[in-house]
Amino acid sequence: MIPEELYVQIHKNMPIICVDVILKTEDNGVLMIKRDREPLLGKWGFIGGRINRGEKLEQAAQRKLHEELGLSLDNLKLIKSGYETIFEGDPFGHGEGTHSINTCYLAEVSNEELAKIQLDQNHSGYKIFHDVEDNWHSYLKEALKDSGIIKPKFIPVCEPTIGEKELEYVTDAVKSGWVSSAGKYITKFEEGFAAYCNQKHGIACSNGTTALHLAVEALGIGKGDEVIVPTFTMAASANAVIYAGAKPVFVDSELDTWNMDISKIEAKITPNTKAIMIVHTYGHPIDMDRVNEIANKHNLFVIEDAAEAHGAEYKGRKIGSLSDVACFSFYGNKIMTTGEGGMVVTNHDEVAERAKKLRNHFFGTPRFLHQEIGYNHRMTNIQAALGLAQLEKLDILAEARRKNAQLYNSLLSEVPGLTLPPEKEWAKNVYWMYGLLVQPEFGMTMPELCKSLLDRGIDSRTFFIGMHKQPCYQHGNAGIEGEFPGSDELESKGFYLPSSSHLTNEQIQRIAQAIKDIYNANRYSK
Ligand SMILES: Cc1ncc(COP(=O)(O)O)c(C=O)c1O
């Protein structure tokens, strides 16, 4: 029952509390009735209307069924409840700008029951609709989706945006016969990507993890060395250090930017520290001036793990150009993709030369003489063809992510208990993934919200689990000492919503509405 307090409050401002009944027929049609009388002349609608004071919503639904259709159905199922809705159009004919608390019930009617319908003096006919998805108001569509009559289309958390150009270049690469790691697309992609980052050298490789591995080893970091790494990251950052035989030492992250807490770096520096690896988390740059200042003071290299930040900017400068060496990933969910793929960019000639050799088994002169142990971390010409087409529209892809974030922000800023993603005045965040933190005021935990979104066909992902908690780093191979409250909080509250560059405004509106609906339904059910 609607609490008295809420009922009084609504009635003070708004004339109607609405309860609707949707009747589903045996052949999956949806029954709507035609009203004759003003103000609802000729309108097809669900059975709906006021509830009486003290009446339970379900009782009202049953009463309306009886009054308007002569049916007595007690198998009503609640499918949507507690909606504070301001209708711009007027699906129910209550008058422009009507505010309602709407609750929808669903009943399945057999053909036998259908035959019993007797319309009252206000209704002249009924019709079974099979095309509700195309014709009806979004609220009703949502209710029908919740009821399972209409299945909402699944919105995945991320998909690549691939067009004709990609097909053209990839086809050309395949047809040329240059399908392995030599070919014109490799060269064009490396040169083009390095130029995009304002760097001299680009070294394409098999994925973002191998890019990091090459970067660490190309800087000469190995056994006995330590590298500062944020604990709040993807395991690849730390693993790359371990592959090189060195030790990642974890630093906590901050709630302000979701990046490594720069104020905690110096406490973790030892005589063995050789580099600081930073991550531009979820597309938001870290404050590079502060990082570089610490690195200069302690004579350390800086490695940018820019796997998530293609096109992002720090004080007007491109991410990837702000350190000794930067690494990108082109995995399928990244802002641009090569399927699997990665790139090292640097201005240092020797680092680039070493990275190239390490990428390809350290082939020497003569060719089959190897001075060091290298790897096969190569990218194929086919992947580079895909990459080149993506690079040509990288600014468009990154801008689309920013537009997504602006729309999400405008739709979600009023929802209590949601912390929106950061963007510092000195940063251009590319919102690789649109993340949110779920605070206690939301009334549900982050995993509960993710589960409810999935029930509505909306995919999401929880944030990283801090590296200090990983079983694989508990064996002395990593610096896990100390507390990591920032990372723990991000992990327990954070998740991200669908973020593909080609997400439509309608999809974002549906996702934001679903979050508001979940919030309201949870609030009223308490
Ligand atoms: C921060 C970070 N670093 C490194 C990587 C590794 O990239 P890849 O999956 O291409 O190996 C990822 C990939 O998701 C990442 O998010």
Structural class determined from secondary elements: alpha+beta
List segments where confidence is low: pLDDT < 50 over at least 5 consecutive residues.
86-91
Count of DSSP strands? 21
Report strand %: 15-25%
Global mean pLDDT: 90
Helicity level: 25-40%
How would a crystallographer describe the biggest sheet? 7 strands, mixed
- What small ligands are held by the chains? pyridoxal-5'-phosphate
CATH 4th-level superfamily of the largest domain = Type I PLP-dependent aspartate aminotransferase-like (Major domain)
Intertermini distance? 11 Å
Give me the CATH fold name of the largest domain: Aspartate Aminotransferase, domain 2
The best one-word shape is: elongated
Our count of helices gives: 16
Characterization of this structure:
- By secondary structure, this protein is α+β, with helices and mostly antiparallel strands.
- The chain has three domains: 4-147, Alpha-Beta Complex (Nucleoside Triphosphate Pyrophosphohydrolase), CATH 3.90.79; 164-392, 3-Layer(aba) Sandwich (Aspartate Aminotransferase, domain 2); 394-524, Alpha-Beta Complex (Aspartate Aminotransferase, domain 1).
- 34% of the residues lie in helices and 20% in strands.
- The protein has 16 helices and 21 strands.
- It has helices at 4-13, 57-69, 111-115, 132-135, 138-147, 164-176, 184-196, 208-218, 235-243, 288-298, 349-359, 381-392, 394-412, 446-455, 485-493, 505-524; strands at residues 18-25, 30-35, 43-45, 47-49, 77-86, 99-109, 123-129, 201-205, 226-230, 247-251, 273-279, 301-305, 313-314, 317-318, 325-329, 342-346, 418-419, 427-428, 434-438, 461-462, 494-497.
- The strands form four sheets. Strands 1, 2, 3, 4, 5, 6 and 7 form a seven-stranded mixed β-sheet that branches.
- Strand 9 (226-230), helix 9 (235-243) and strand 10 form a beta-alpha-beta unit.
- Helix 8 packs across helix 9 and helix 13 (394-412) packs parallel to helix 16 (505-524).
- The longest helix has 20 residues, at 505-524.
- The radius of gyration is 29 Å and the shape is elongated.
- Residues 86-91 have low confidence and may be disordered.
- Pyridoxal-5'-phosphate binds at residues 207-209, 233-234, 236-237, 279, 305, 307-308, 329, 331, 342.
